């Protein structure tokens, strides 16, 4: 599938800030499931910093913008050819040991309810089928409902609520997987939603679980599937915060507000 | 040098000078209160607190403006950021942060003042009279300044120390002169009277300028002579023009050393030019209080320009 | 004090390194000693060298007690320590490069993967990064104890930001000022070039993108930190700026510091703040101490950070057990300095042994430091041992245990005169283009009679440490 992306994030500050520094994971991962045809990231008046590929295989690029400023725009445009690998992250180069993804973090900590959920779904062996069952269990337990949870909602809170969005699904799946002894991580990316009946925004998130013999395999509880050629993978981390496509800090007293628009479409051949 | 280091040096100097002013204010108030006036002694203390800008805070904490309370407030009170104890504490903290930018002698002088102050605080108040407090403060302030002048390397750090001293002293001299305004304001009939002259003399004493004034001017003490001495006479070490000249000197050294001038230099030159062309009559035509208020504002702007150009770290 | 090795007296005779000190002490009347002690304290206060005990409150200007009786090594004794410490520092760095790279030692089964990759101190964010010259830990502090003429044990390694080196320098400075004659009579190897070697070491690991003389800075958490004195002292002696996070900012590919003349590029940061606080964009988002974007600059080769983020995984108390294995694996050598035998309470067999012998052992928290949260079995009451047993059983993975070592003693000035007190030693090994060790270190002494805890937070003092030139 040939997907085109137009992703615009605008930051507004109610008072001028002195400078903004950002760290981007906004470049599609390099693996057999996707091939970049063209890709561009621009930041208003931004000065690009050093770029590198980190141990998890993500392309990281720093940016800085000199103030005083009250607004900046980060724009991502490009086209990617995607292939359906049934969720398997084949041909992805990374050096971080999967064992690093067993520790929990605040939003992915398993409380007794999550441990219970994991135990009921997991079964005896850490197989691909068990991972599927975990993903289904999370999808069953947390109904997709936008607007009820926030960026800081934890997996435990979302489960107690029984509702949430893709971030909550991913956090909950990571929590139950790790509680079952399976390394798991958060993945951020894009999804061609809408016409194909996929749920969630075009800026999407899901989880990857380490399956011995297969490597990292993606699971998207929100759409009860494994990522296919409607998905574009950007980067990963222990949780949403670590995997965020844009992390930034503004220096100055101004309050930040933000406006995001993402369009992912089938590109004209 | 690091902007933050420059900032610490600049503020260390400002706090030392400010401590000295707090002590001088105390002395002015105590002297003036020794003679009877139309309103009794309380009025003088009130005006003094107004000049020090802490009347409100004082009223909240102590209520009665009696000498003992004022002494506590202006000397020991750590809730009053301009008390001698607060200023010396802040000066020492700034010095500790940039300990290595100071010579042992300067650190010693500041640290000794701080340690002695702690001992003073522990003494029963009956053993610490006002003249001891003011003498103590002047002595240590002089030791620190002397150590700075005698031992500090003449680099940009020295310029920031001296800038801090100059700008703070200009501000404080203006405020001390203004105390007279508050004292005199309600009683125009006293102008030129014995009381008026006594108060002016007290002011001179408080600035350790009593004898210098007589050497320079001779004859009667008049408001005009004193205003000239404290505002426009470049021989007077505390006059506004001396302070602003000194500030300009060090700003010039900085611009030469760094190979570029900033807004601070142009503001400094403008302020100095204004003072140089001024006559005593102009001051009284404008109104002493009005003139001083304007000067304090402009001097403050120069301080802000120094901050923006050197201390904030935002200069490109 | 039988059963403990006394470094000065072998029975009635004086061991050679201390030969001249016997005369020195005998010639010093009590009054002179007291005067000198007061003089030393005044000097320390004057310089401003104080130590605030972390989390204890109280007087922030407290002095660490300084004992004037020096601790002495012969050149030959030192030569062995020198080789052993450098060997260990090299192995620890090889380990760090390996575990953030291919992880050969894990693949070879020489250390459990869990211990490395699930370690709290392992920084996934720097996996795949090889810092300049392949050095993660540039200042390695090795804590050593002695139990006999030739028996030294490594108590622990400090690969992050070992503190205390300012005491090594100040102790020497003060001894030289007070007792110049001693230094004329004994040929004592100098330590005062440490700051210069440190500066050279830091400059030698400047990033590739740096051309010309690298700009080195020390990054401190601020003047409220208990080690602030040391930070400013070292910055001063090295002639480099002492910066706080707010003095630095990231722009483009580099880190800059705010100066009165505008931004100045920084090439090497000797940081004295923890990994978690370095960069809110990478680690703790609430950090006010760090520099946003610093890790991106570091990882793309725009700046060097010393010690490199992630170095802490090598000095973890559980990883410590495997250091001899690292020496064999990476260097193909036998360890010159031995580890103290250590029981991992996370292992069932070890835990069983530890619980059975609790009253004889020293039990420490895996991540603890400063002598807090530990049990010294033989020095504890039955009630203390019982209380500790509960904590140990509740969370065995958090503890390791070691035999109570018969720490050597050296003569120390005490109220009644001179008496033996237990000591340890921390030399500071510098690793950059070269591996260097100044002949000396920080000797800590337990001033309480019979005490084996030398931590300054627990009533320990410090001594000047001499290495005699051969």
UniProtKB/TrEMBL annotation, chain A:
InterPro entries the record matches: Bac_transglu_N (IPR013589), Papain-like_cys_pep_sf (IPR038765), Transglutaminase-like (IPR002931)
Ranges of residues in domain Transglutaminase-like: 158-223
SUPFAM superfamilies, per the entry: Cysteine proteinases
Domain of life, source organism: Bacteria
Gene3D superfamilies the UniProt entry points to: 3.10.620.30
Protein name: Transglutaminase family protein
Origin species: Szabonella alba
Organism lineage: Bacteria, Pseudomonadati, Pseudomonadota, Alphaproteobacteria, Rhodobacterales
Automatic annotation (TrEMBL), chain B:
InterPro entries associated with the record: ATP-dep_Glu-Cys_Ligase-2, DUF403
DUF403 domain span: 1-311
Superkingdom of the source species: Bacteria
Record organism: Szabonella alba
Protein's recorded name: Alpha-E domain-containing protein
